[in-house]
Amino acid sequence: MSFANAVWAFEPTTYKPLKSPDGRMELYFKWWQAPFGKGSVSYELMRDGKPVIYGSQLGFELEWRDDLVYNFVVKKIEFDSFNEVWQPVWGEEANIRNHYNEMLVTLEQPVGKVKSMDGSTDKRPTIMQIRFRLYDDGLAFRYEFPMRYDGVDNALVCFWFKEEMTRFGLKGDHTAWWIPGDYDTQEYNYTESRLSQIDSLYEMGHEHGGWPWTDFSRRGVQTALQMKTDDGLYINIHEAATLDYPTMNLELVIDSTPIDMAYLDTAHDDYVIKDNQAYLLSYSFRTHLCPDAAGYKGRMQAPCHTPWRTIMVCDKATDVLRSRLILNLNEPCALEDVSWIHPVKYMGVWWEMISGKSTWNYTDDFPSVKLGETDYEHAKPNGKHGANNDNVRRYIDFAAKHGFDALLIEGWNIGWEDWYGKQKDFVFDFLTPYPDFDLPALNKYAHEKGIRLIMHHESSASTVNYERWMEKAYNLMNQYGYDAVKSGYVGTIIPFAEGHYSQPINNHYHYAIVEAAKHHIMVNAHEAVRPTGLCRTWPNMIGNESAMGTEFRERIHPGHTAILPFTRLQGGPMDYTPGIFEPDMGKIVPWGQKMQHTICNQLGLYVTFYSPLQMAADFPEHYEPYMDAFQFIKDVAVDWDTSIYIAAEPGDYIVTARKPKVSSLNKAAESLASLPDGKKGVISNATRYVYGIEDTNALTHSHINALKPRDTWYIGGITDEESREVEVKLDFLKPGVKYEATIYADAKDACGLPNTSTLTHSHNNTLEYNPYGYTITKKTVTSKTTLKLKMAPCGGFAVSIRER
Ligand code: NOJ
Ligand code: CA
């Protein structure tokens, strides 16, 4: 007996199910006499004959007309299938299979059956279609609204959603890794709990989180939401291809239904007993879209469709990491020429400001800044401005010496004296450098050394102001040879009352990407909406933050980075900004605290996190004492031919192996060489590693063509506050071939967990904080070798393996 049967105790019409290509998953579409009024529809998802999602409602509540939840008749059900392999411009693997079976259900609310303020439904039928795609690793569906169907105009032309009614009915009180539902930030630690505990852990879920935050319910959570059933099934709810639509949050609903004790299956049912009456408990999520300033949740104009709603179902945690469900549901690349898009390994004048060592602002003179009026030329420098010519040159020298592609510089433009928390409209112009930042000269200096500068556009969440300046700002970038921008949306969105994830603001982020592509600019947007796989269509979107990243320093819980690949990274790469070799922030500023990781943990992130844009975030002077460990960051690639997910458990650990994509190894350097002042023949350090070029002067890139790349792999591992030993079988290496492995491992006494930590909710660690301890060993390995690797609390490891 289960709740689903109890409530849905009306006889539905069930249609021929849709099956996944491997036959293990089944999707049932049903039409009901009740309970949402006659003619409501639902779906149910089974795996291996067992329900994963029980009968769950579909549809919408609308403004100014009857809802799209009942009075449907099923007009037609069509089946189709698709199987292809496509090549992403960059990614975790060179070839991605997109294989699914599809079912398109056409629903009609017949003329006169529902009421509308404009009377359209008295004259024309209402048509809504639901397109289901069933993959081996999950279900996706979306709603579609054609302009005409069967030669008749749809009564839905321009329509406004009050709410999307999609439900996700869950078969049990699953374990979930969640962040609180929000209209403005995803910068939260994850909480691991049972679904039923979300409400009581609401406050804890918000601890140390981002600003501004706008919640809507104690039971609200964001997607991608990773869950695990008591049977060990991994279920992940997210969305794909969110365009011209608000972001989906979920709200937990716990229903309790009185049940006769005789029918209770006490071993399997979730129930409570009150006053001698048993109640069956059931858990489901309802959709809660981010409203716009006027409260609408989607202003639609046919023909149109919603984003895909996705339910990934996997037997193993590593299969979740392997899934390409979200990317596959996005449209193919929209750009004809992608030759200008390339992976980027970069450093930045950034951590100086985040850590408090230096400032974004140039002066402390101005409590108020008005663009075009404030006189910076005569202002007194505060002596702590990070983006000054000398300091930028110091970073360029270091990045160039160690084979990086690019350098980000924040705080280069006027306005930083008066931005944060002010919510000004005219906040930055993205054009005017500070007096001590010589933009043309620094770009020339960088290009001649083989480095690109990365532009920074902090919009301060004034999307109106950013759009005002965007074209000029992108032109300036083109003029000086910048080909990548990091943008930011810190603060309350302007126009006021919009959230960060409402439909109009989601449209802004997309506009910024599309306009950037016209200028051959790659975008890494921070605080923008979390991605939903749009990088397949717009591969110039090379990164996003849109989650709690390194900037949260000691506030990041151990295990956070072992959750993100299951959740945030499902939609696209994250600019997590790893590589902090001096995690004791107290050594930088008196108020600094200890970050919770070892150096080897940071190395492991370069492999366990996928991003074609990867940063070495710390100061050059923090790398200098550990150049032998820094070598891994220099050698590691950022774009992949093959990825193998060796072991993983959300929130605990991840071990991943990746083989670099040789064709993109030196693409950044080649792109730089095409600039008139760009240094020719630069070879990135990863290229050197893969080709085994030891002599840093001997070769230019044109000579590389004569060499053969060696079979190369990188392995990374990370763990939470628990130390762990993992065994990694190298059976993915070519048989009979000898390789040299360089193993970067936590030392015996290494420990990334400060024993003073009050931020970690449960641990009983006895080791002293020693994030710096590591060992580096070289050894010959073959496909028969098994490596035993030990990770310290909050530790990790990295291995580079190259054919001899
Ligand atoms: C927040 C971003 O995430 C961070 O990387 C950046 O430095 C600041 N905003 C300032 O723009
Ligand atoms: Ca941020």
State the total count of DSSP E strands: 40
Q: What shape does the CA trace take?
A: globular
The helix content is 10-25%
Q: Which structural class do the helices and strands define?
A: alpha+beta
How many angstroms separate the termini? 62 Å
How many helices?
16
Average pLDDT, rounded to a whole number, is: 95
> How much of the residues is beta strand, in percent?
25-35%
How many whole angstroms does the radius of gyration measure? 27 Å
Largest beta-sheet characterization = 10 strands, antiparallel
Low-confidence runs: 1-9
User: Which kinds of small molecule does this entry bind, naming each only once?
Assistant: 1-deoxynojirimycin, calcium ion
Oligomeric status: single chain
Q: Could you characterize what this model shows?
A:
- This protein has 804 residues and is of the alpha+beta class.
- The chain is 16% helix and 31% strand.
- It has 16 helices and 40 strands.
- Strands 1, 2, 3, 4, 5, 14, 17, 20, 21 and 22 form a 10-stranded antiparallel beta sheet that branches.
- A hairpin with a 3-residue loop joins strand 33 (640-649) and strand 34.
- Helix 7 (389-401) packs parallel to helix 8 (439-449) and helix 9 runs parallel beside helix 10 (503-518).
- It is globular.
- The relative contact order is 0.09.
- Bound molecules: 1-deoxynojirimycin and calcium ion.
- 1-deoxynojirimycin binds next to loops.
